[in-house]
Amino acid sequence: xxxxxxxxQSDDGARSRVFRDGLLDDQVxxxxxxxxxxxxxxxxxxxxxxxxxxxxxxxxxxxxETAALGPGGQIEPVVCDIREEDQVAGLVDGVLxxxxxxxxxxxxxxxxFLSPAEDITPKGFRTVIRLNLEGTWLMTHxxxxxxxxxxxxxxxxxxxxxxxxxLPGMAHSSAARAAVENLMRVLAIxxxxxxxxxxxxxxxxxxxDTLLTKYPQPIxxxxxxxxxxxxxxxxxxxxxxxxxxASPAGDFVSGAALxxxxxxxxWFGAWPPAAAADDVGRPLGERRRTDRDQPV
Length: 296
What we know:
The protein has helices at residues 37-48, 60-69, 85-99, 122-151, 171-190, 209-214, 217-222, 235-246, and strands at residues 28-32, 52-57, 75-79, 104-107, 154-161, 196-203, 257-260. It is an alpha/beta fold. It has a single domain (19-293), classed as Rossmann fold (3-Layer(aba) Sandwich). Strands 3-2-1-4-5-6-7 form a 7-stranded parallel sheet, with helices on both faces. Helix 1 (37-48) packs across helix 8 (235-246), helix 3 packs parallel to helix 4 (122-151) and helix 4 runs parallel beside helix 5. The longest helix has 30 residues, at 122-151.
């Protein structure tokens, strides 16, 4: 199975496979969590369409790798912890100083750990809520108030997770992502008077390094079997939807929650499935990593 870090770069790798050249010329976009996985694929697609893309995250090396994969000079790496208000303000002010505008914000950064709900500590719950919900709010509020509301235009896309009927083993993340989705619905209404469109994308299981290397191997081996289409998604398939929403074709789409998961949201089955449980039927958890190893 191909991993996102092995995304092939051909002679025409700077061109989109789906959209026309120059579709997003002159636009400026910020993609949080742009150093890997879905964020990297999104940044590369937007840059291939002509946008100037700023990728942010906590670790500089993956951000620089994303920038190097993009068309010459179109992607800028900026280190920023979206949980820290001063860092977010500095990021947004810096983009405005350099480019004078922000047309698109993609809230992709997030993270969680697999655990039965009864084993999640208050600290673990707060950590996931702060990263996924508060970080998304800080980024969205800063970009809107500093750039989009004054310009009376802009688009915000927040990446959440499916299924909407609950994600067993991730009570903390399910709570945070549901909140983000509803936040986008509310802001789509409130900020429509400024010409700002807000949407969310509920992502299913995609063939990223995070999925393929972070979770217990029995779950990785079995996950495609829980998807009616019978396969994992490719990161480009989410990036194309972001590009569509960023383009003029998405101008009348606002307040929507778009699910991209091969129909898994509609069919999950009993919990825990045999492949995700130990020999006494207890749901599998994951080996906890240090903060440095957590996803951006």
